Amino acid sequence: MARGDAPRDSYHLVGISFFILGLGTLLPWNFFITAIPARLAGAGNSTARILSTNHTGPEDAFNFNNWVTLLSQLPLLLFTLLNSFLYQCVPETVRILGSLLAILLLFALTAALVKVDMSPGPFFSITMASVCFINSFSAVLQGSLFGQLGTMPSTYSTLFLSGQGLAGIFAALAMLLSMASGVDAETSALGYFITPCVGILMSIVCYLSLPHLKFARYYLANKSSQAQAQELETKAELLQSDENGIPSSPQKVALTLDLDLEKEPESEPDEPQKPGKPSVFTVFQKIWLTALCLVLVFTVTLSVFPAITAMVTSSTSPGKWSQFFNPICCFLLFNIMDWLGRSLTSYFLWPDEDSRLLPLLVCLRFLFVPLFMLCHVPQRSRLPILFPQDAYFITFMLLFAVSNGYLVSLTMCLAPRQVLPHEREVAGALMTFFLALGLSCGASLSFLFKALL
Is residue 390 part of a domain? Predict the structure, then answer.
């Protein structure tokens, strides 16, 4: 909620900027997992063959989808934790702008490799190294941006998360266009990997524009000086309703705040007027349940997506539908519904921060793990196929993706509401760490679930 004396977000430019920055933070991850090859075998240009190889091939000697997920999330976890120390000694602008430039450079290198012929082994090693470095910078970038968002109205966190959801749709559409373009694999791959470079450039422009927008300067320029004002805002919100929920008059709110301000000089002279530095442990005690829910949501999601879901094939006879089934029904459908789920929190937040229904909804998502493992995955040796029809997989994916997007956005929006105003930035940084922890746990479990098939 914006304060009454805050300037207007003219033309919603700040909201659009954070939406595009959210898009930029997850473009690298989505472009790599959407282009996962089903196998890395034979000679030739492996980078180009990412886009021309069928996702449902019989071999995956390198376990590419599992490794790219794990080696994306472990650096994300490590550098998210490291970012909690970096913010004290490295300026925010250096962390955000430096990370964006590094990601742009590494993706440009990936695009350049399209023109280089190499065998699968070296290609796999270089790709994994690139994934590690890109996600290390992405972790610093996300942590810094979530820290900024913690000082702003919750609507902007929702916009940022919606932008992250759109990154997957962007990557899936780029994949489909590359497959349907009819051009040779090398040209298709070059266009595919240049696309995120454009997205990162847009993110850089948006970030550089923020200091020139009054609304952004109001919330971001002097965070510490706003803490006391934000506490008064919280008092006003609490006073606006009595025990029965009937709104109080504005005059009563203003009078009470004035009385509070008049009493402050009577306090002990040694008492600090500004809130002290927030304790990480104190903030964690307030948000631990919400943070645990976030971990469990991402643990379930990354344990099967894309490691298991990318192996599901159509039960129909070979043809165009079979070729496009997984890119459409796995990647595109997931990202569209995930983005829709994230966007729903712009209209309502249910359940609220005091409800015990949230952990129950999160735990119910564990049912998706066996459901996907029992879908039509031909490469299996242990479990039976109980849901062979395409309709089963599509239904499961719809519910899986919407619940992921909604619960992720919900937990990220609820956490700042559970702490004091001057603790919101710490809460945002902590939630980013637990987000990365959930991703890493899910990526690790994906090896186990794939082995159980």
Answer: yes
